[in-house]
Design a protein that fits this description.
By secondary structure, this protein is an all-alpha fold. The chain is built from twelve helices and no strands. 60% of the residues lie in helices and 0% in strands.
Length: 210
Amino acid sequence: MPFQPPEEIGYGHVIERYVTRKDSDHPRYRELKSGRVLRPGWPHTERFTRHLIDDAATITDAELEALLGYEWRSRLTAAWLIGVGRRATFRERIGDLLLVSEFCFSGSAYCFALARFGTHADAEILSAYLDHYLPRTGLRYDQPAALGALLRLDAQLSAHHADRFTEPDGLWDQWVQALAHLQHSPYFTPAEQRRLTDLHCDFTNGWTRP
């Protein structure tokens, strides 16, 4: 997919405005990646979340596109803003970026956005991603985040999209077992991935605009 610095298309302000702005000790993209905002007692939670909600509501589609067309930090931030604001018009764009997986770190944010949209269409995108990447057991991309998002959607939609991936000795088990040290890790269970997705989405659902 095209890779273009925002300043080349007249949107040079979006990096400082949305990606590297500081509402805490670190730039926004770094806090989103680390998940620090989810930790109880984090002193910057109110300021950070208030500004994130405001930006999710006011950022334009053109600004989001400028961010999605750049590197992983800007794409991660854009996907979070899209997910928080439930900008479902970006569903296809997010799905394309997830499947291509050009950059590290941003994929989990795409999965978050799809989980926030909450429809069968989003479940189909996540299923397509897992169909493509789980058989490739040598690739450790965003399979966990995709499965967690799919499991959350199944619970919300009373659906069973994830069943064929999580059945015993199915694609998920095969992917995990390809690396011996992951086989008994509690992190790489479907239940843990669902819990992590719920943690992000439920926390976001609890935010309110001032």
